């Protein structure tokens, strides 16, 4: 972190360094520090130079801060640039596909791509035209087929299989095949594919794919009550990315199973804060574990935030808030 910070102080418009700096800050849970460098870059940006690198860096910062509307705006600003366009389009497609919704329970229902199909297809076509690596748009196309409609699972698997036939260790395609196998409920095959990825040498180039692999396999182990194996994978995930809220949430589930409410609450608090307090599921788990520890004031504070954030869940007031107040009075 220090090396990038020093470089950006002397050259604030080094956008390759700035984008990498933002990625590193996110993984060490210091993302708020990126704003100073972004402001400095904007203040010093020369008029004669395309602002695409600055727009891309802003998009990345917004994406990691869970401000997806702002992120898509800035990635769209950068997508026509020769240097930054490909990366910007990949980020746009990933945001629209919302791949985080895919899990060990059989994938996604595809509801989130309704109304976005034309945009995604146009972006995929654009990416295919400019990409320097033909496998990148093909993998994203495989995911699009998968989340768009369940009837496309075979076509999706074919996409990933064609890549794997040419490169048996291409991690993005192996992960895509794993998720497609989950979607058709071939759980054992999917798990074996994920184990295959875990055994490969870790590569920073595919850090996002390794993270998803660790999370999916950990989720599978939790479902089968193999908590030691799940915890090991969550720890590996957090070793590489301390800001992975899903790993913290699963660590909380594991601590709950082991009857350790203090550690469970700490894990859920990390997940709650990293998601910017936008998950009612995590918030509810945090409240319940605070109550187990007799930390009623903290529980009520979280409830108050949840009422403000999620007025569409009135049952939470009945089930959580009243319990907190009753426990505090008793």
List the helices and strands and how they pair.
Elements: H1 2-10, H2 15-27, H3 34-43, H4 52-64, H5 68-78, H6 85-97, H7 117-130, H8 135-148, H9 153-166, H10 171-183, H11 187-198, H12 207-223, H13 227-240, H14 245-257, H15 261-274, H16 280-292, H17 296-309, H18 315-329
Q: What is the radius of gyration? A: 21 Å
Low-confidence stretches: none
Give the SSE string: HHHHHHHHHHHHHHHHHH
> Structural class per helix/strand content?
mainly alpha
Largest sheet: none
* Strand content bin: under 5%
In short:
This protein has 330 residues and is mainly alpha-helical. The chain has 18 helices and no strands.
Question: Would you kindly provide a written description of the structure presented here, covering whatever features stand out?
Answer:
The protein is mostly helical and 330 residues long. Helix content is 72%, strand content 0%. The protein has 18 helices and no strands. Helix 5 packs antiparallel against helix 6, helix 8 (135-148) packs parallel to helix 10 (171-183) and helix 13 (227-240) runs antiparallel to helix 14. The radius of gyration is 21 Å and the shape is globular. The N and C termini lie far apart (49 Å). The model has no long low-confidence stretch (mean pLDDT 91).
Which key features would you list for this structure?
single chain; about 325 residues; mainly alpha; 18 helices; about 70% helix
């Amino acid at each position: 972190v220090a090396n990038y910070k020093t470089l950006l102080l002397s050259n604030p418009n080094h956008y390759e360094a700035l984008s990498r700096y933002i990625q590193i800050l996110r993984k060490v849970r210091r993302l708020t520090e990126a704003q100073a460098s972004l402001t400095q870059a904007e203040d010093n940006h020369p008029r004669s130079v395309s602002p695409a690198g600055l727009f891309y860096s802003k998009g990345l910062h917004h994406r990691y801060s869970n401000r997806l509307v702002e992120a898509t705006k800035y990635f769209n600003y950068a997508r026509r640039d020769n240097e930054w366009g490909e990366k910007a389009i990949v980020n746009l497609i990933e945001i629209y596909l919302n791949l985080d919704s895919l899990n060990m329970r059989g994938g996604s229902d595809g509801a989130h791509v309704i109304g976005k199909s034309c945009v995604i297809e146009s972006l995929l076509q654009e990416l295919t035209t400019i990409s320097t690596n033909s496998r990148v748009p093909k993998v994203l196309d495989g995911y699009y087929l998968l989340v768009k409609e369940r009837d496309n699972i075979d076509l999706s698997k074919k996409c990933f299989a064609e890549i794997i036939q040419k490169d048996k260790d291409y991690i993005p395609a192996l992960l895509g095949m794993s998720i497609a196998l989950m979607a058709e409920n071939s759980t054992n095959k999917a798990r074996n594919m994920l184990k295959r990825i875990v055994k490969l040498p870790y590569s920073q180039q595919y850090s996002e794919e390794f993270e998803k692999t660790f999370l999916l396999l950990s989720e599978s182990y939790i479902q089968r009550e193999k908590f030691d194996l799940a915890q090991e994978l969550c720890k590996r995930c957090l070793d590489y990315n301390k800001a992975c809220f899903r790993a913290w949430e699963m660590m909380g589930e594991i601590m709950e199973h082991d009857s350790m409410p203090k550690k469970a609450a700490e894990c859920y608090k990390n997940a709650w804060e990293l998601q910017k307090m936008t998950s009612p599921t995590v918030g509810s788990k945090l409240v319940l574990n605070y109550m187990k520890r007799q930390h009623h004031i903290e529980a009520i504070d979280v409830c108050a935030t949840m009422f403000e954030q999620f007025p569409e869940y009135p049952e939470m007031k009945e089930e959580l808030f009243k319990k907190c107040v009753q426990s505090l009075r008793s």
